[in-house]
């Protein structure tokens, strides 16, 4: 993983007080921080500078945060940038929509700067780390290269986010074992299981859509969690 002073974070918000607070706490962690106060500026800076992570408000002048997320995820050059949405829109439909469009995490205002920094650290770890030092994981049609962060199903490359990749790696490394939502939230996201586990459900739903026919290997255990099974075993 890069050194902290090599990590560049773009913070996008039209509220000067929020920008100042977020920048102060991220720079305190020795991250390099750039800011944008409109959607158009944010999109331009993200495309030109390719930040290590984007902290993105939803309600912005010009292009809104959801549109920015959608545009960045459509572009092969920017689709792997982790996005943390930071917004006053706390409704479940807004949170789910953001995650469905490819955001990796969602924090609502008012927020704890300490929690925000923790989530930034976890997202950076997810995008750069490898699971448990294992290089290859193979289950059923899945082959996962944890060093190169590459996943294939039946030999075809999967276009998945860093969070989806880590989720798939964890389930594949424990084949057939039911993983409770709380366990996944802790082991994949690095969060305490007291936080909202719907993030897990949304990510699993998004991953299933990308797996196409292989989605049958990702099984829901009602009321508990998920497991990866080899249907050919």
Tally of DSSP helical segments? 8
- CATH superfamily of the largest domain, by name, is Response regulator
Largest sheet properties: 5 strands, parallel
Count the E strands: 12
Overall mean pLDDT stands at 85
The level 1 CATH classification of the largest domain is Alpha Beta
Give the topology string: H per helix, E per strand.
EHEHEHEHEHEEEEHEHHEE
Please tell me the CATH architecture of the largest domain by its name.
3-Layer(aba) Sandwich
Per the CATH scheme, the topology name of the largest domain is Rossmann fold
- First-last Cα distance: 36 Å
DSSP strand (E) fraction? Answer: 15-25%
Number of domains: 2
What is the general shape?
Answer: globular
Strand order of the largest sheet: 2-1-3-4-5
Question: Radius of gyration from the CA trace?
Answer: 18 Å
Q: Which stretches are poorly predicted, pLDDT < 50 over at least 5 residues?
A: none
Structural class: alpha/beta
The helicity comes to 40-55%
